[in-house]
Amino acid sequence: MNIFEFERLLLAEIDAQVAEASDDQLFAGGYLRGHITLAVAQSELSGRNHIRDVKARVKTSLNQAILSGELNDDDQKLVLGFWLKLVDKVERQAASAE
User: Fold this and answer.
1) DSSP string of 11-41?
2) Residues 78, 27 contacting (CB under 8 angstroms)
3) Which end of the chain is more exposed for a tag (fewer CB within 10 A), N or C?
4) Which pTM was predicted?
5) Residue 69 — left, alpha, or beta (φ > 0 → left; ψ -120 to 50 → alpha)?
């Protein structure tokens, strides 16, 4: 799986949850969309085309948001937890498809 397929799967999973998502899940998914898209674009521009690079960039971006006070404590836990579950689900789906 390349970074663009990874991005597509992540965003599709966020979209698939919209109909049944809680307000917190909608917030976390919407918040992560921008971080994911930016991480993929930055990875592509720098020639870093591994999924681990995208995941590292998202993590760095989220950490910067936390340090800047953009997310309160509850939102930090919510977004980071959603991110970890999202990545796990997409990677498991991709592995089972191989």
Assistant:
1) HHHHHHTGGG--HHHHHHHHHHHHHHHHHHH
2) yes
3) C
4) 0.88
5) left
d(CA 96, CA 74): 33
What is the residue-level pLDDT of the chain in tens, covering all 98 positions?
Answer: 889 999 999 999 999 988 888 999 999 999 999 999 999 999 988 888 889 999 999 999 999 998 899 988 899 999 999 999 999 999 988 888 76
- Listed in sequence order, the residues at least 6 apart from 53 whose beta carbon sits closer than 8 Å to its beta carbon are 3, 43
Question: Helix, strand, coil shares of the chain as percentages rounded to 5?
Answer: 85, 0, 15
